[in-house]
Design goal:
The chain has about 220 residues and is mainly α. It is built from four helices and no strands. It comes from Crotalaria pallida (Smooth rattlebox). Belongs to the BCAP29/BCAP31 family.
């Protein structure tokens, strides 16, 4: 039995070493453990583990019994008891090592699967985040294109308004020049009107004086 336990410990230690390092063998071991944990596998493992635990407890009980016998007899162990004590101690140690390595293999397998699931989840989250970022980037690019088109339209509208403003300014300048010319022309007309009015007044005065002179001359002739 001891040789069998050594073989089991060697196999379990090899499995632990394989699980600790990322090699092609680890995939095979993980696949084997996955199949072992399906169907009736867990029940069989629990049965074997329970049997090993019972044998371990039996060895420990035998050791305690031999120790109590020594205390009761108040004498040293006989060679037979010493051999039995060493045999039970070795069996208990090997059985404990078997259970410990089996538990370690189970935990390593569980953590490796959990790590794979988390990696897949992280990859899915990254892909989703990338998709969201791509959509946001496309949306931002579309908004940027729309804003650029709106900016171009505003610039063209601004140029049109600027040209209209320049044309209106020119028209206003022409109108102001026309107003100034008309004002000067009207001032010239007013001056001409005043001059003509003054000449008219002078002519009237001359006519009146002629009329008076004629009336005076006619009155003298009549006398």
């Amino acid at each position: 039995m001891i040789q069998l336990l050594f073989m089991v410990i060697a196999v379990e230690a090899s499995m632990v070493g394989v699980l600790l390092f990322k090699t092609p063998l680890r995939k095979l071991v993980i696949m084997g453990l996955d199949r072992l944990k399906r169907g009736r596998g867990p029940l069989m493992v629990k049965s074997v583990g329970g049997t090993v635990l019972v044998v371990l407890l039996s060895s420990l009980y035998s050791m305690v019994k031999i120790q109590n016998r020594e205390i009761e007899d108040a004498a040293s162990l006989s060679p037979t008891d010493q051999v039995l004590m060493a045999n039970h101690l070795l069996e208990a140690t090997l059985l404990g090592a078997v259970l410990f390595l089996a538990l370690m293999i189970d935990r390593l397998h569980h953590y490796i699967r959990e790590l794979r699931v988390r990696r897949k989840t992280m990859e899915a989250v990254k892909k989703q985040a990338r998709g969201t970022e791509d959509e946001e980037l496309k949306t931002m690019e579309e908004e940027t294109a729309n804003l650029r088109a709106e900016l171009k339209r505003l610039e063209s509208e601004l140029k049109r308004l600027k040209s209209e403003l320049q044309s209106k300014t020119k028209e206003v300048d022409v109108s102001e020049a026309s107003v100034v010319a008309l004002r000067k022309q009207s001032e010239g007309f007013l001056l001409e009107y005043d001059r003509l009015l003054e000449e008219n007044q002078n002519l009237r005065n001359q006519l009146q004086s002629l009329d008076r002179s004629l009336s005076l001359s006619s009155s003298k002739k009549n006398i």
